[in-house]
Amino acid sequence: MEKNWKKGIARDVMALGSIPFYFIVIIRAIIGKYAIFVYQLLIAAIILFLLMKIFRKSNAHIARGLILVVFTSLFYRDNLYTTFAFLLWIFMLISGFYIKIKKNEIIKGVLFGVIAASTSYYLSPFIARFINFQFAA
Fold first, then answer.
1. Cα–Cα distance for residue pair 32/105, rounded to 1 Å
2. Residue 49 pLDDT > 80
3. Residues 6 or more apart in contact with residue 37 via CB below 8 angstroms
């Protein structure tokens, strides 16, 4: 029974990198009219999608979790939040190993998250200048 309980928590932590959770953050940013934050998350999602299609067998939950840690930390600019989010992401990594996700898939997830977040960070201001996306009033 105890082992199932631990696996349940590990799966719950991994869900923080799920597609529904990722889009909850995006929709909240749209409602709050934070265009650059929305661009960062959308561009990172597109880049991650392409990486996942080109290179198979990687963990997208870990990648999306890292992207969310990076951009929400930049958004909030608060050391306590950043520390909490980073530790939660580390717990995602540990959970991945605990529920027996292959080491290679976890490493690729980390790498793809870094690539998607860093590329999006530099592309989003450039793209934002050329897209005049108006959020609902």
1. 34
2. yes
3. 29, 71, 75
Structural domain contains residue 136: no
Tokens of 128: 């934002």
Residue 89 has pLDDT above 70, yes or no: yes
DSSP 38-101: HHHHHHHHHHHHHHHHHS-S--HHHHHHHHHHHHHHHHH--HHHHHHHHHHHHHHHHHHHHTT-
**Interatomic CA distance for residues 78 and 83, integer angstroms:** 9
**Which residues form the domain of 123?**
2-130
Q: Is residue 19 part of a domain?
A: yes
Count of domains forming the chain: 1
pTM: 0.90
